[in-house]
């Protein structure tokens, strides 16, 4: 299945600071880790934001978690699939505990709320 021409992936951009937290997070990672994550994000795009376990997991309120396990690192990227065939990457972190920390979920929920309120005010560029 290849919908590359249809779905596009965007980094959430904070309406107040204009910063893109997922992009900033990824830029700090080693090159090999970024490449692995990019491959998973491309897979997410190719499957229209609908990946099942073990690649993706539903969190809550429409937010899903992209799961990237690379050596001993367990990267997680929270995302949403929205109108106009867009996938928005909301929040990223390195998972170090068996259960997803509530504070990470709250960050993603806050970013999602900011997105919903301000989506028409922020220009989103495809990743």
Account of the protein in words:
This protein is of the alpha+beta class. It is built from three helices and five strands; from the N terminus they run βααββββα. Helices cover 31% and strands 28% of the residues. It is globular, with a radius of gyration of 14 Å.
Offer a few descriptive terms.
alpha+beta; 127 residues; YaeB-like fold; 31% helix; globular; five-stranded mixed sheet; 5 strands
What is the fold's blueprint, element by element?
Blueprint: E1 8-11, H1 21-27, H2 31-46, E2 56-60, E3 63-70, E4 73-82, E5 86-94, H3 102-118
Parallel strand pairs: 1-5
Antiparallel strand pairs: 2-3, 3-4, 4-5
CATH architecture: 2-Layer Sandwich
Structural class: alpha+beta
Spans where pLDDT lies below 50 across 5 or more residues:
none
Rg? 14 Å
Helical content, roughly?
25-40%
From the N-terminal CA to the C-terminal CA, the straight-line distance is: 20 Å
Major sheet summary line: 5 strands, mixed
| CATH secondary-structure class | Alpha Beta
Query: Helix count, per DSSP?
Result: 3
What is the mean predicted local confidence, pLDDT?
A: 91
């Amino acid at each position: 299945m290849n919908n590359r021409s249809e779905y596009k992936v965007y980094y959430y951009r904070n309406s107040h600071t204009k910063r893109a937290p997922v992009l900033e997070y990824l830029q700090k990672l080693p090159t090999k880790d970024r490449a692995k994550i990019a491959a998973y994000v491309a897979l997410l795009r190719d499957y229209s934001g609908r990946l099942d376990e073990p690649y993706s997991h539903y969190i809550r309120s429409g937010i899903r978690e992209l799961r990237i396990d690379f050596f001993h690192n367990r990267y997680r990227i929270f995302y949403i699939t929205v109108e106009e065939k867009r996938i928005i990457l909301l929040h990223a972190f390195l998972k170090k505990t068996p259960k997803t920390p509530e504070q990470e979920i709250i960050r993603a929920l806050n970013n999602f709320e900011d997105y919903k309120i301000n989506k028409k005010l922020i220009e989103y560029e495809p990743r």
